[in-house]
Prior knowledge:
By secondary structure, this protein is mainly alpha-helical. Helices cover 54% and strands 5% of the residues. The protein is built from 14 helices and 4 strands.
Amino acid sequence: MGGLNQSPEQLLASAGFTKTGAFDAAGTRVETTPAPAAVIAETPEEPAVVETTATTTEEPAPPAEQPQPTFDIASVLNGKFGDKFKSLDEIEAAYTELEAKANQDPFANDFVRNLNKALKDGIDPQLYMEVSSVDVDSMSERDALVLEMQWKNGVSKEDAEFMVDRAYKLNSEEELDQSDPDVREAQIKLKIDAKNAKNFISEYKKDSLTSPIEKRQAEVTKAWEPIIPSIVDKFKTYPLNGKTGNYEVPVAPEALKSAQELLKSVIDSGMLDNMPDKEGLAVAEAIVEKEILYQSRASFADYLADTLKAKQLEEKHNPRKPAAQEKPAQPAGDWMANFLAQQTGTRLR
């Protein structure tokens, strides 16, 4: 019952409520106007101002311009070479001259070059000259064996001849008994060993006593040998185109032979050092054609004259009225000489 005597605030508190608002002494609620909430205005922080004190630095004055040193090329050259060179152009010219001399072949010819090589190899000069000039194909079996023994063993010619004659029974004054097995064996061995000796001398001459120029020329010549006849065969007939028509004129065998010989001599002499490639074949065909035209001037003229004469005779016996757009055939005359002159030109050799 005591609770009846409690105030409204106490009753609310005992019920677990919290009083909001205001009440008077009798417990009556009194309306109150809540105070406006305080508004907190955020103001941005102003950046800190750092006070600086401006300082001025004076730039140093540029250094005084120094006179540039002069390069006296003449004094440098004189100090290095004396009075020999006056300018760089003279040095360059001298260098070019020395370079040309360095690249120049120091030997007068291949014989001297190979002789120098043989001396370096310890070969007797007399023996070198004999080997370099010998015709291997025409050598006798005995000479080939003697020369090989000299070359390989460094013995004198007299000693080599003694050894060869004794080994192959070539020093007997009497006729040898062919039924003797030793004699037959020596003769068989002579043929075999002589063949090997000739091969040795030939290979040495080809590999050691041949200059690079000679080797190159030998390769070129060998490459052209099977091709030359086929080039000449292309010109068994020659096309001539003139005012009176087009003709395939046969080329005389003599002209073909002359052209083939000329081409071979040009290749063998080194005047045509190309291999039979596209460019080389073009040059070779031009040589053959030029020679055939030169050799065939008279025969071509005779052929054209005979052909034109036969044509005129045929038209005489079988006249026909030329078509309106056609022109009558012109007789052979000065045009033939001019035409052949243009075709043949001048001979290569």
